[in-house]
Amino acid sequence: MARLILFNKPHGVLSQFTDKGTETKRQTLSDFVDVRSVYPAGRLDRDSEGLLLLTDDGKLQARIAEPKYTMPKTYLAQVEGEPDEDQLAQLAQGVTLKDGVTRPAQAAPIPPPDLWDRDPPVRFRKTVPDSWIRLTITEGRNRQVRRMTAAVGLPTLRLVRWSIGPWSLDDLDLGMWREVDAHI
């Protein structure tokens, strides 16, 4: 039976088990998850936080990560500025990026969520307001949410992936993981 692990990845942690990138040791999945033979199903950038799925099943990994399956991924994004109806409509219709037009997304403003503190904290500027949006996409391009929000004039300050398909963070604390039923 396939194993599936939900991990609440902290900011600054690489979405891999080893770090071969620099001389300075960076935190990896192995600093948090002591389970053999599981691998990330998809990516989550080092400067993003939240849900990362790990599995030992290649077919399940493909079903989660490959764009052809259009598995929805929901993000909470703290953005610079306050979104207006036009910006939200652009996100909902699809945004033109250097690698093409994105699929339509669901986008809505939300009140600031009750999240863990981020280390390091997001910079605060008295003269520039910030706000939060919930964005659900069905693709997984490199840094897609950050590029989409920037393209409509709302640069992302903090990005938390909240859910992938039927799985979500719910009450999973930062840096913690749990094994769940892998059936989709």
From TrEMBL:
Protein keywords: Isomerase
Source domain of life: Bacteria
GO cellular component: a single term: cytosol
Record has Cell wall biogenesis/degradation as a keyword: no
Entry's Gene Ontology molecular function annotations: RNA binding; rRNA pseudouridine synthase activity
GO biological process: enzyme-directed rRNA pseudouridine synthesis
The EC number(s) this enzyme carries: 5.4.99.-
A Pfam match: PseudoU_synth_2
Keyword Isomerase attached: yes
Domain Pseudouridine synthase RsuA/RluA-like: 4-151
Family of this protein: Belongs to the pseudouridine synthase RsuA family.
Protein name as it appears in the record: Pseudouridine synthase
Organism: Pontixanthobacter rizhaonensis
